[in-house]
Amino acid sequence: MEKHTEHSRVRHSHDERRDEILRAVVAVCAEQGLSRLSVSSVTARVGCTRSLFYHYFPSKEAAFDAALELTIDAFIDRLRAWDRERVRGDIEGALDGISHLLKTLVVETPDLSRSIAADGDAVLYTAFVHRVAERCARFMCETTVVDFSRYHEVLIDHVYETFYILISGLILFIRSHPDVEETVIKDVIASTLHIEGYTEKYPERRPER
Prior knowledge:
This protein is mainly alpha-helical.
């Protein structure tokens, strides 16, 4: 029992050191830009050896990728909270909530994704948006869409692909138009998913049951 406890304690300590390295990756990128990211800049910030860095990550690119995944995890956590808190049957309320959330996530961009955008690396930013859209679309298909389909007909084909295009398109649009009103985002989402009939704006378009 004592060995198991000690093993758990050491493993937890290692996990904390790994997280420290990832936080340093984010900090270096946010403060100095992606071009200044290096193993030396990260280890200097953490106060660890290069060998410890390489114990967790084979390269700075691998560390950056892991830090990027943590950023996307945070996006999914916010999406999961929205899904958990929405009121069953209140489709318009859910649309209001997701429109606000999506704009907030793009405009109040976390340090790492803001660094990618500021660095002007279009290829890297496109890859980042792809990963966000892919995971968010899968989450929606596996949770919200399933719940919606229990009570209403899903009026779109290729559900995953539609959500993927919708999410990635809105991220890019909001980034280039940060002053866009949330009502516009809401209308785009509702019309793309053919659920605008569940809003007060277009009650005449509500599907017949």
